[in-house]
Every structure is written in structure tokens, then in C-alpha cells.
Amino acid sequence: MSICADHSQFVLSRTRPISPSKIALISVCPWQFLLSTEAPDSPRLPHSPRAILGSAMHKAIELNAGHQLTGLEIKRLIEDEFGRRVSKLPVGLVRWVYDRDGTYGLLPTSIIMGASQLAYKSIQSSQVSFGPGTESILVGGDAHGQLGRERRFGSSALDMEGWPDLVYRKGNAIHIVDFKLGLSRDEHGKPKQDYVLQIASYGLMAKRASGITQVVLELRSPSDEWVHDLDAHLEAAVITAAQKAQEVLPRGKVFASAALTRLGPHCQRCSYRPACRAYSDCLSAGDDSNTGALSPFDLTGKVTSVTQVAGASRIAVDALPDERRVVVNGLIDGVVVSGMSEGCRFTAYGLATSEIKGRGNYIANFNAWSQGNPRRSAFDAYITTN
Prior knowledge:
Blueprint: E1 11-13, H1 23-28, H2 30-38, H3 49-64, H4 71-87, H5 93-101, H6 109-123, E2 139-140, E3 143-144, E4 148-149, E5 153-155, E6 160-162, E7 166-170, E8 173-179, H7 193-210, E9 214-220, E10 225-229, H8 232-248, E11 254-256, H9 257-260, H10 277-285, E12 299-309, E13 312-319, E14 324-331, E15 345-349, E16 357-359, E17 362-367, E18 382-385
Parallel strand pairs: 8-9, 14-17
Antiparallel strand pairs: 1-11, 2-3, 3-5, 4-7, 5-6, 7-8, 9-10, 12-13, 12-15, 13-14, 15-18, 16-17
Helix pairs in contact: 3-4, 3-6, 4-6, 7-8
């Protein structure tokens, strides 16, 4: 891998098997897939508090499976794990607010309770049987895997590898479970295609490794559950996606960013847009008429003034492409950004908060940190100056 200062010569190659959790990205934007799997330390929007909570919930389930714990004890375990993960973050707004206001400065009680309830149901589950031979039942053929929680699954034919949350045997069926804090559905009542393709990939690997033909897929959230057999349609979808991935991104071949970037509405949700030269050029030009790529919460331009307000900075920016005036409040000195001064270039990605005020269809005012309600802060914002 190599990268120059403006990312124009960023090149990458795929060196590892495809992750089922990322496989849908390849058909959307191969470059985003490579950045997230091969260069995860590239400039990116930080994880939101809710994403960190999801990781803490999974860890609590993994470490305490089968233990007799109360709901309150599990809630405390999740909060402790959440705090440990936040405390290890580099200096930034999430850690700053946590040190100042604690867990509930970052997350509402309802979200933490939902994660705790889902973890409680999983930890108390008696569906996973252990004993001689049970963990090694899923070994053979071109695929491998084991019963249990967070076990490694892989397939050489699919060139795929990942760690499903839970795999257990019930009767003559293998069950694959994936826990989600949110399980939104489309107008047809189906979960996100990304989720379905991910869990179906685990299911196909389990079927090939075990020789067991009945595989049941389960997506679980605090308030919803989706259960579906691994049918011929889902199997074909996984095989097609894996074949496309191997065609588009064969292992070992070097690719430049310009050859793989696909601008489109998906860019608005991409955490790696700060590392994408094509997106930054689009942002500076202010023209996404052919792609719909630009997020209304991203901006770049020249700082025209810097003032101190209530222990934080407020800046005015003449935003490109036509120098419309934008005001950004609540920039914590030395935490959100450093080196701000009049005349410097200011670029911000993802300043979406519930306190935004607009002027027409263009955002005119952002609050990076909300002093009155910290949970409204722009935790997943990425800001640079030069």
C-alpha cells in the first residue's frame, strides 16, 4: 500500500479472504470495500457511540455465554465494556464527552436497555450444546467452522472468511445467528440486503462444511427477529456475489483509487469519504448532479473568522463552490480540530446533528458539540484544516 498527501496515488490490493459483513460493498463501490478491509486506518469518520455500544454488547455475550446473570448485571457488564472501549479511543469528541458526562452523555437509556435485553436473551440461551465432538461437527470439504459463539468460518471456494455471532445445532438443522442493535426493514418487510447477504454467506459455508442440508438464518435485535431458511435463492445470491468479488477484486492485483471508486448516493453513508480523492473533488466542485453523492452535512471552504464562545470555537466558513457563508459552533479546541485560523482551508464530513439550522436547501449552521444536550453532538464527524 502507498499513499500520497492528497490520496491521488492511493493504491491497494486485496490480500485476504472476503468478509461476509462487507461483501455487499463490492457491488456498490469496490474502493470503499478495499479501504474498509485492507486500509482500515485510512482517514475516516469515527465510530458513533451506538456502534461502540454494539461492539460492547457482542463482547459481553461472547464472554458470558451460558452464565447465570441478572439483567442488571448484564447491563453493568455492557456499560463497563463500553467505557473501556471509549477510554481507549484517541482524543476526540466521543472520548471528551464521555470523560465529561459519562455513558449517558453519549447514549440515551433506551438504547442501552435495548442492548442489555438482547444480550440477556442470548447469554441465557440454552440452545448451544457442548460436549465431545459438538464443536468440530462443522469441519470438512472446502469450508470450515465450528459450533459456538464468534467461531471462525471460511470457504476456499468462495474465498470468504468471517465470524458469525452464534452457530448452534437444533435437531437436524444448523442455526446461524447474527445480533443487530437495529433491524430496519424495507417496504416489503425484509431486512437490509447487506444483513441478509452476510448471514446467508455464513449459512452457505456452514452447509458446505457440515453436509447438513437444513440451515436456518436468524437476525435478532432488541425489538425484532427475522428467521428464514437458507433457500436456493439465497444460496445463489451468495455464490453470485462471491464470484463477482473475485472477478472485480482478484487477490494480489494492485488497484488505484480512480479505477475502483464509484460515486453515488451510497457515499453519503460511507465512513471513508475523507480518504476518497474522487469524493473530495466532488465536494470542492459542489457538483453531484450525475451521482447524488454529496452529503448535505459535508463542507469545505475558507475560514473567514474564529471566535471563542463558552469554551469552544465558532468559525465562519465561505464554503465552496460559491462561497456561501456557513457557521460551525462548538469546536472544542485541541479535541475536534487544531490549527484553525482565518484564511485556512476547513473541511468537515458528517456534521449532522439534531440542532442544525438551514437556509433553504443548504445547511447554514452546524453545532459540532451541543452543550445543552451532549447526545446531539456530531460524534461521527471528521474535520481537517490546512
